[in-house]
Amino acid sequence: MERIVCQKCSYFxxxxxxxxxxxxxxxxxxxxxxPSIIVKQNSGIACGFYNPKQRK
Length: 56
What we know:
- The chain has a domain at 6-43.
- It contains one helix and three strands.
- The protein has one helix at 35-43; strands at residues 12-14, 22-24, 29-31.
- Strand 2 and strand 3 form a beta hairpin.
């Protein structure tokens, strides 16, 4: 299984909040840690919503 890189996902976004700088539109949350790590810690499985960004 390949490691999921949130920065390459279309659902990933960066916030202006210093205490919660990373967000995931698919799971609808913000956190201090990258969303893929949070999902793996809490569910025990890799992110199911990973969708690579489309290159223009």
